[in-house]
Amino acid sequence: MQQDTGSDESDRWSLVAVAGILSFVAMLDMSIVNVALADIGESFAVPAETAQWAVLGYQLPVVALLLPAGRWLDRVGMRPALLTAVAGFALAAAAAALAPAVGWLIGARLLQGAFGALLFVLMPVLATRAVRPEVRGRAMSVPATLGPLGAVSGPALGGLLLDYGGWRTVLLVKLPLCLIAWAIARAVLPRGGRLAAPGRREAVDAALIAGAVAAALLALTLAPGSPRWGWAALLVVPLVVAWARGPGGRPVLAVLREARTYGTQGAVLALGAAFAAVHYVTALHLQRDDGLSASVTGLTLLAFPLGMALAGPVGGRLADRWSPRPVAVAGGVLVAVGFVLLAAGDDWQPVRIAWQLGIAGLGMGLYGGPAQFLVMSAVPAAQLATAGSTVQLARSLGFTLGPALATAVWGLSGPGASGARTALAAAAVAACAAVPLLALRPGPRRAGAAAVRQG
After folding, report:
1. Residue 206 sits in which domain range?
2. By C-alpha distance, which of 147, 193, 165 is closest to 31?
3. Is 9 in a helix, a strand, or coil?
4. Residues 98 and 45 in one domain
């Protein structure tokens, strides 16, 4: 991506704020529409399977386009790319809210997901280039903290909007934030740079990645009750191999080999999956099996984002003052401890669940910014968008696959509290596995890697 964010000698915290705002709204859309699916289905007189595409229509393009978007964004200008992505995201959201038919709604959500993929890649790049290397840890912690906060606050905010304004307001809620982000970026980003049309390579990459993710989700969905899940799982391997050996996959893998960040990327995926699985299982069990109200469940789950909000700025400052890797490892340990305690508990009392989720939330806040800093600081400036796309793909895959994996484990383990606890145990195992991955130090870098401190 062309260097057009200004001099490296000055810190542009307004652009870090833009990265945080966009991280919040992009992740908010991953979860907020879930609460409106029943109303959408009723409004258009369509079955739940069709209404579900108001969510999947956003999530699948986000995951499918992250890597192609990273490769494309490395060769275009920051200013035109960011302004176009924010404007397209907001206009697609407005088009979805004004949809006269379900086909229009799904099409608008697909388009919004495509622009959302661009936002996901641009956020860490913007935070990295907006400030000097000495303060990048705290800069990276802003989008790394606000993104998951958007994801976990989506259901509560969506439910409130649904009660008072209907499902169309759920789709419109992020527009003021998009307008603020667009105005700040337009005022602060230096003029210059250009856009180039994506090529056939990006389209092929997107199709292969989308097919692999869809096959994995289908396999996990079918696993509890159908032998056909194995056939769906078998489709994942050839699609991934075809992408890796193609002209789109080889440059991405070359960046990963040069940066040697496989351990950190794996930890991001594992912790993302564990976080999403725990949030899904806990909310569903408390309401469906224990009969708690939505408000009590929401207050219980609120402990996690509160912990994240408290620890996020601390993690960034500690990473800048000392070293990002030990801070990320300490955060991963806290997440694992919280989830292990949650899975090992013998009751489902909201108070116990809340303080254990709070511990995990503190850990997630500590780990997020430093882990992203480790990935972004390991590559040359010309490859920042590609590096950003890989870490965002790892996180998005974790958020997408976590609930599906929890559903599969829960279904295979039986209904009720025992099955829910087994699903929580699987999430705890994933969180524990992330700790040694975060601690894994890469070997000597190849020529061309960025020479910055990684701890």
Report:
1. 199-247
2. 147
3. coil
4. yes
Is 59 found in the same domain as 22? yes
Question: Would you put residue 148 in left (φ > 0), alpha (ψ -120 to 50) or beta?
Answer: alpha
Please give the DSSP secondary-structure letter assigned to residue 339: H
Please tell me what DSSP assigns to residue 383: G
pLDDT digit string (tens) for 238-276?
A: 988 888 887 777 777 877 777 788 888 899 999 999 988
Residue 423: closest CA among 354, 352, 342? 342
pLDDT single digits (tens) 164-195: 888 899 899 999 999 999 999 999 988 877 77
Helix (H, G, I), strand (E, B) or coil at 66: helix
Do 99 and 212 lie in a common domain? no
CA distances for 367 relative to 43, 184, 416, angstroms: 42, 28, 32
Q: How far apart are CA 318 and CA 138, in angstroms?
A: 8
Domain containing residue 320: CATH number: 1.20.1250.20
The pTM score is 0.76
Q: Which two tokens stand for residue 434?
A: 């992330």
